[in-house]
Amino acid sequence: MARRPAHELAGSADEVEAQFYDALQKGDLERLMALWADDDEIVCVHPGGMRLVGPAAIRAGFAAIFANGGVPAEPEQVHRLAMLGGALHHLVERITARGERGQVEQGFVLATNVYVKTGLGWRIAAHHASPAMPDEAQALALAASAEGPSTLH
Q: Is the Cβ–Cβ distance between 61 and 52 less than 8 Å?
């Protein structure tokens, strides 16, 4: 897996998260994988999917997803918990796509992202995403328009 030099890495968990969602939207596997921690215990769970442990499994999971193009996921309602050497963000991913008849459709995914500060900068240690329940979707849509980002301490 290609690693970026330390001077090219983000200076905060927020910057890594922004790069993650940009790479996800563009289907850029190399850029996305460069954001993960260099550890065999990193983990990713895609909505409705199995637990993928380690860089090879995570790469294979995203490669399969990107075979259909990028994922139009927009992070919203981000809540942050900062700690020494780490950060936990839980948020809603709004997925907007065109349906079979060209209509705009939206779905919501509940995600938790865990970041660790390494000698090479901030990296992703875990990404866990689950589909929002159908009755949650309307509440999430309403809340997204009324609530901005927040930080928990």
A: yes
Report the C-alpha gap between 61 and 129 in whole angstroms. 13
The verdict on pTM exceeding 0.90 is no
* CB neighbour burial string for 82-105, b if at least 16 within 10 angstroms, e if fewer: beeeebbbbbbbbbeeeeeeeeee
Strands (E), 27-145: 43-45, 51-53, 73-83, 86-98, 104-118, 121-131
Cα dihedral: 28, 34, 110, 27 (round 10): 0
**Which phi and psi angles does 133 have, rounded to 5°?**
-65, 150
Cβ-based neighbours of 112, under 8 Å, separated by 6 or more = 88, 89, 90, 91, 126, 127, 128, 129
How many residues comprise the chain?
Answer: 153
Cα-only R_g, the chain: 15
For 29-70, write each residue's pLDDT tens digit.
Answer: 999 999 999 999 999 999 999 999 999 999 999 999 999 999
